[in-house]
Amino acid sequence: MNDPALAGLVAPADPRAGGDVPAFGALPRVAALDDLVTRVLAPNPGHMSLDGTNTYVLGVPGSGAAMVVDPGPDDEGHRRAVEDVVGAADAEVALILVTHHHYDHAEAAAAWAASFGCRVAAPTADVAGPGGTVIAGGDVLEAGGLRVEAVATPGHCSDHTAFRLPTGTVLTGDHILGRGTSVVAWPDGDLAAYLESLRRLLDLGPGALYPGHGPEMTDEAEAVVRYYADHRAFRERQVLAVLADGTEDPPAMVRRIYAAVGEHLWPAAERSTLACLHKLAAEGRVVEVAEDRWRLRP
After folding, report:
1. Residues 238, 191: one domain?
2. Do 197 and 154 meet the contact criterion of CB atoms below 8 Å apart?
3. 135, 117 in Cβ contact below 8 A?
């Protein structure tokens, strides 16, 4: 259905569209992405987790040490698959890194650390656990001669952290996904912080993006970061347009703005819409006139 208030707004083009992107559900269980990184796909596909959580095994060949990024769900078969990758490299897990606290990334961290006899490095103490390391942007983690830099990328959630490799590749967690766009779910999600994190990532000049869900992005890495920023600006224009047309409550906004999107995604879309409204309110452009009812500021 065409919405006259939104008809003049044109969505930005996704640079991944029409490219050689594996179909949904077609990612291999294990894939060596480069000399330092192997992806092991967790068996937890879904609307929000896409093909499943990407667990990454990092290590310099021959060093005998590996890091595991985002172990994901505490699934025995998934842990065995990771162990097989580590064993094939004749290595041992020296460190587990976690991008953020969401369970589909962090659930297995403590159990796997106990199994491997290593520590967890994460941006919150709850995930790092007793004896673990709480990390912040700029911290460097090292194992087997591989140095990995933590890059603060809050926005998707308050503690979100990406990891940059010496090759220029960035493991983006849920900051940027291999398919579609990420959710910025108010109140833990903050759209202003998210946009600043996108700018920080672009300033790094990433050579490749390895996301927490979905396929890797190589040739188009910087274009995807720009697309994510453009997509957020497009959604903001849509929010302002339906406000100007008299729609005041977020559920009704979502029904108009996301009319072409499956209704199973509308709850997440509503949280992102709230994040947009709170950003606009902080800028003095909209006002909350009652609980969850919004208008353009006169």
Report:
1. no
2. yes
3. no
